[in-house]
Sequence to fold (144 residues):
Amino acid sequence: MDVLRLTLRQLQIFVAVARSGSTTAASAEIALSQSATSSAVNELERLLSLRLFDRAGKRLLLNDNGRALLPRALALLDGAAGIEQMSRDGSAQAQSLRIGASTTIGNYVLPKLLAGFMGHSSPAAPPPGGRRSLSGTPPPSAMP
Fold:
């Protein structure tokens, strides 16, 4: 597999320029200088060996190559945002453990085992950014 040289930031800049039609307007949107925005677009075009915009004065208009790239760039950026969201809400590391036990085991053995599960030094510790929760439910025979 070849080493990828494209960055998500380059694609983000490309999308901003495509939407705004100028590096000046895009630079304000993405908090970069106009020259850094212009350089990023030029570098992306160089890496792809494709012109993505037709230049008309200070306006940048998507050409056929740019129109072909835009939906793919948007999909990649959406995917990356989804990965970031997944890591923020912990869904990537959600763990579930369901245990059934008699009253004796539940009162005398499980507390020590669960303390290890809930502790950060146990082998069952969640990965960084992971989370744990513990809830108890009475056995069916104790329910009305």
